[in-house]
Amino acid sequence: MSKGLAQIMKQAQMMQQKMGKLQEQAAERTAEVTTGGGAVTVVVNGKNQVLSLVIKKEAVDPEDVEMLQDLVITAVNEALKKVHQEMSEEMSKITGGLSIPGLF
């Protein structure tokens, strides 16, 4: 095996180890988003799990359930987007900007 190919294989193995470590850390990475002027706050992790959902009682209006539903959906989607973006940025650092399908 040529020195160049051996070096490439070594770099690929190191990249794979770093990507594995980042995926393990995904559960620890969190994003928090608040909507409705503080009415709804959600925290998600890098594994797309909702860790916390806080709804202030002032946001609960039996006459306007749809607005509360929209606030929750918006908060969850924005938090997932935020944590996904952070994970993608970290992955980009590891891969040198190379986009690998299926990774964050």
TrEMBL record:
Pfam families: YbaB_DNA_bd
Coiled-coil segments: 5-32
Protein localization: Cytoplasm, Nucleoid
Annotated keywords: Coiled coil, Cytoplasm, DNA-binding
InterPro entries, alphabetized: YbaB/EbfC
Quaternary data: Homodimer.
Function summary: Binds to DNA and alters its conformation. May be involved in regulation of gene expression, nucleoid organization and DNA protection.
Family listed: Belongs to the YbaB/EbfC family.
Protein name: Nucleoid-associated protein KP005_19875
Native source organism of the sequence: Geomonas diazotrophica
Classification lineage: Bacteria, Pseudomonadati, Thermodesulfobacteriota, Desulfuromonadia, Geobacterales
